[in-house]
Design goal:
- By secondary structure, this protein is of the alpha/beta class.
- It folds into 3 domains: about 1-60, no CATH class; about 65-155 and about 315-330, Rossmann fold, CATH 3.40.50; about 155-310, Rossmann fold.
- Helix content is about 45%, strand content about 10%.
- The chain has 11 helices and 8 strands.
- It has helices at about 10-20, 30-60, 65-80, 95-105, 125-140, 155-165, 185-190, 220-230, 255-265, 285-300, 315-330; strands spanning about 1-5, 90, 110-115, 145-150, 175-185, 240-245, 270-275, 305-310.
- The strands form 3 sheets. The protein has a 4-stranded parallel beta sheet, sandwiched between helices. Strands 1-2 form a two-stranded parallel sheet.
- Strand 3 (about 110-115), helix 5 and strand 4 form a beta-alpha-beta unit.
- Helix 6 (about 155-165) crosses helix 8 (about 220-230).
- The protein is globular and about 60 Å long.
């Protein structure tokens, strides 16, 4: 299961997609009427044309890159199983019901569905909403088969190995720093997901202090992924840093990717490698926001070389990791 995409870069399709996405109470977690006023009355009318244009810059002959990469991953994983593999999106098409029904058509006496959310890290606006939506559709349609969900894999050795291997070829080129750019979320989401109600964001080093909160803390998990990958690749601490992209206001996780991209050249960081580990499939946030606009900002600020390392997409080690996790459940 992945995030999803508009059916086309046309304004009407982007508008419909944004409405479904932004009206999700786990994405904009404010009361429904206020959320509806904000989304339908302000955000969508002011942003839909720009969003449609952004999608048009990355659209391919096969359609949405995120959908296409997810389909390619489906095909690659299917080669390792006799059981059918289907895909679903949290927003847009194909829907969870589409996926469930296709599986039932192929196996009428279906007993169990294994759900793999394509989000390595736990966040209420990504992993949680995807899983809960799949559960909701499962319950609403009174399906009798069991639904088993693969847990966040931000520190799983197979995921770390695959991510490290995908980065390794790019380390051969000359660079000053590697920027791990994770998708941003509001700080209040971190606090709301804190099962202790008192740990997250309570101190500068809260992510390094053991706590049950870490099982649901996006910030902690992003840091763990970065630490494990850089250790495996023997990248010194002064050669990399973490940032957060796609922010909406100042109360989101810091530092901000767009700000750092403009600051780095002034600090002598002229050659940059950047990757987006919160995503396993390249999409609008990687291809347009980072590969296009991010590069433009960095070079305008005085940078000399800028390379975005692609997401895992259909990397063989990523396919092998998924295969191993599923087989371990059987």
């Amino acid at each position: 299961m992945n995030l999803g995409s508009p059916d086309s870069p046309e304004v009407k399709d982007v508008k419909r997609y944004l409405d479904e996405f932004l009206m999700d109470g786990r994405v904009i977690d404010i009361p429904y009427l206020l959320r509806a006023f904000l989304v339908k009355g302000i955000i969508i009318p002011s942003r839909v044309k720009n969003s449609a244009h952004a999608y048009s810059t990355i659209w391919t002959k096969d359609g949405s890159p995120l959908i296409e990469f997810t389909r390619q991953l489906q095909v690659a994983v299917q080669q390792n199983f006799d059981e059918p593999v289907e895909i679903a999106m949290r927003y847009g098409n194909p829907t969870p019901k589409d996926a469930y029904e296709k599986l039932l058509q192929k196996i009428p006496d279906l007993q169990e569905v294994i759900l793999l959310p394509l989000y390595p890290h736990y966040a209420m606006s990504s992993y949680e909403t995807a899983v809960e939506y799949m559960k909701e559709v499962h319950s609403k349609n009174k399906y009798t088969f069991k639904l088993t969900t693969i847990q966040p894999y931000y520190d799983n050795p197979e995921y770390i190995n695959a991510l490290a291997e995908s980065i390794k070829p790019y380390l051969q080129q000359d660079y000053d720093k590697i920027l791990f750019s994770y998708h941003g979320i509001p700080e209040r989401h971190i606090r709301k997901s804190d099962v202790t109600t008192s740990h997250c964001l309570s101190s500068p080093n809260c992510c390094e202090i053991d706590s049950p909160a870490h099982n649901y803390c996006y910030r902690h998990q992003a840091r763990v992924t970065t630490r494990l990958v850089t250790q495996q690749l023997n990248i010194p601490e002064n050669n990399y840093e973490i940032s957060f992209q796609s922010r909406l206001n100042e109360k989101w996780l810091k530092p901000f990717t767009d700000v750092r991209l403009q600051e780095m050249p002034k600090e002598g960081i002229k050659k940059l490698l950047i990757l987006c580990p919160a995503f396993v499939s390249d999409c609008l946030e990687t291809l347009e926001e980072i590969a296009e606009r991010g590069k433009e900002d960095f070079l305008k600020a005085g940078g000399e070389a800028y390379t975005m390392i692609p997401c895992l997409n259909v990397h063989p080690m990523w396919v092998n990791a998924i295969t191993k996790w599923i087989k371990e459940l059987n």
